[in-house]
């Protein structure tokens, strides 16, 4: 227990030190936290009024409704570690090799993963507990049960974060898990179709009634209605579920630790083979390196597949509704406006690349070309449906708008990566396991300002592309060519400036990118 307290104390001290050393970015962390707290407060008020409005209804029907909401939130909680962030890997990655008991490691990772969301999401629990209690004295029963329901969801998210660490070494398993998590975003679109609703409606009620994620929530509703017998039954089921999740998490943690040890003991030397690069020159080698690196990363493969799938679904929806091309123009500009992170794409292999005498401008250009190739499929999906609905002329104009702003955006975003870098995930960890600290918040702020700068710099070329569709005679194509050449000239100037900045800050950038300090 003493070692656990020491670990928790060190974690809080490290976070406070990182917060205080982040300078002006800490202000945006505070503002972000206050905004999230205000959002959860509004959700808590909404939960209170929603539950008080249905107090006259039978407790069983209210429990079914609450079960549907909690189950939906629970699915999001469980899939979040596979999509956004590895909640436990960041806190465990520097502790796996230390002589610490597995139980202490488990409690450490669990507590560090649930304390913050419990504090920030407490208004929702309080609002739900007050709304579920049909008598003031019953609040003493509904409040701890609402807390139990939330702890179960957080424990499930913690378990899935350990699953994300465990399957990170198995690329195809990680791909399938992430594909399943991303595919849940298509459920609202599928449920909007009458045929899908007619098929799923008979299955919805039985699934909601037996959902394990809502057992504690059902206990809260029955306790608030004064039905102690049913509440006690679901409380026992909720505690059994929490115990099962904790047991599975402990086993997963043990497997992760054993895997780390096996890697150190049973490492085998790879058979040396001559490197083959198909693209010519240093720039070609850098482009091919970036493409191969990204295609070997599960996150990058999903970043290639899922946006294409989502844009295809979006295009199908537009085709059904007969939308005008203005919606497609907005979507193309949105996909084109943000550039990629030159260091995040290649990962920690950037240290090896920057250790060679390769031109830093070539490295940045290679990253942009690789990023462009990865962003091309979803844009093609959108432009394809536009050509199908509105013809080739409109499609060409939209493509020119997207290309002009994309070229400028890629050049501008390099300054963000150089001025406000943040630590990259360790090798063989979940690629989404990026710490949320002051540096990453500062990166988001600078990226937003860079996006505004992109719009300003690309405005003349966007105007030329728009004007090419309005002017009569044979000047339209020449205006498109002029817009393209102007965007390329601006990009060349931005790359030259970014190269000079990178040469000055290279050591500081690498120090932050390879930072392994605890989050």
Explain how this protein is built.
This protein has helices at residues 2-21, 25-53, 59-83, 89-92, 102-120, 122-132, 139-167, 171-183, 187-191, 194-209, 215-224, 228-265, 281-295, 298-321, 325-337, 342-346, 350-354, 360-390, 392-419, 438-468, 476-513. The longest helix has 38 residues, at 228-265. With 519 residues, the chain is an all-alpha fold. It is built from 21 helices and no strands. Helices cover 79% and strands 0% of the residues. Residues 85-90, 261-267 and 428-436 have low confidence and may be disordered.
Number of E strands: 0
Rg is 26 Å
Write down the overall geometry: globular
Number of H- or I-type helical stretches: 21
Structural class comes to mainly alpha
Strand content: under 5%
- Rounded mean pLDDT is 75
Q: Give the biggest beta sheet.
A: none
Q: What share of the residues lie within helices?
A: over 70%
Runs in which pLDDT lies below 50 for 5 or more consecutive residues are 85-90, 261-267, 428-436
How far do the termini sit from each other?
A: 21 Å
Spell the H/E element sequence: HHHHHHHHHHHHHHHHHHHHH
């Amino acid at each position: 227990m003493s070692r656990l307290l020491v670990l928790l104390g060190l974690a809080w001290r490290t976070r406070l030190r990182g917060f205080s050393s982040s300078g002006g970015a800490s202000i945006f962390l505070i503002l972000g936290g206050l905004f999230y707290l205000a959002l959860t407060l509004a959700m808590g008020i909404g939960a209170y009024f929603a539950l008080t409005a249905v107090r006259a209804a039978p407790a069983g029907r209210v429990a079914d409704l609450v079960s549907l909401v909690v189950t939906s939130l629970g699915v999001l909680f469980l899939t979040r570690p596979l999509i956004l962030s590895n909640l436990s890997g960041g806190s465990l990655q520097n502790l796996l090799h230390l002589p610490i008991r597995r139980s202490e490691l488990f409690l450490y990772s669990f507590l560090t993963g649930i304390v913050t969301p419990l504090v920030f999401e407490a208004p929702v629990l309080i609002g739900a507990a007050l709304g579920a209690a049909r008598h003031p004295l019953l609040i003493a029963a509904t409040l701890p049960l609402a807390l139990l329901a939330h702890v179960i969801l957080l424990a499930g998210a913690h378990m899935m974060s350990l699953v994300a660490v465990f399957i990170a070494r198995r690329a195809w398993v990680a791909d399938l898990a992430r594909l399943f998590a991303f595919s849940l975003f298509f459920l609202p679109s599928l449920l909007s179709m009458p045929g899908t609703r007619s098929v799923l409606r008979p299955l919805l009620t039985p699934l909601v009634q037996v959902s394990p994620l809502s057992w504690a929530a059902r206990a809260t509703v029955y306790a608030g209605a004064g039905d102690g017998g049913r509440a006690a039954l679901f409380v026992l089921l909720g505690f059994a579920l929490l115990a099962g999740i904790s047991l599975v998490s402990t086993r997963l943690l043990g497997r992760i630790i054993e895997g780390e040890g096996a890697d150190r003991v049973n490492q085998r030397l790879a058979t040396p083979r001559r490197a083959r690069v198909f693209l010519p020159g240093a720039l070609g080698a850098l482009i091919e390196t970036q493409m191969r690196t990204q295609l070997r990363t599960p996150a990058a493969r999903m970043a290639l597949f899922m946006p294409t799938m989502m844009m295809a679904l979006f295009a199908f929806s537009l085709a059904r509704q007969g939308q005008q091309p203005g919606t497609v123009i907005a979507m193309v500009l949105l996909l084109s406006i943000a550039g990629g992170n030159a260091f995040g794409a290649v990962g920690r292999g950037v240290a090896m690349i920057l250790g060679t005498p390769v031109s830093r401008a070539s490295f940045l250009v290679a990253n942009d070309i690789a990023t462009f190739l990865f962003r091309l499929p979803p844009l093609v999906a959108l432009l394809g449906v536009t050509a199908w609905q509105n013809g080739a002329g409109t499609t060409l104009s939209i493509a020119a708008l997207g290309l002009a702003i994309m070229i400028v955006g890629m050049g501008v975003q390099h300054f963000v990566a150089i001025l406000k870098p943040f630590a990259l995930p360790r090798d063989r960890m979940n690629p989404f396991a990026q710490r949320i600290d002051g540096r990453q918040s500062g990166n988001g702020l600078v990226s937003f300002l860079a996006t505004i700068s992109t719009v300003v710099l690309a405005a003349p070329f966007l105007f030329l592309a728009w004007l090419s569709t309005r002017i009569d005679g044979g000047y339209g194509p020449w205006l498109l060519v002029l817009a393209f050449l102007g965007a390329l000239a601006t990009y060349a100037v931005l790359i030259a400036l970014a190269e000079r900045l990178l040469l000055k800050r290279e050591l500081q950038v690498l120090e932050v990118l390879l930072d392994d300090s605890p989050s």
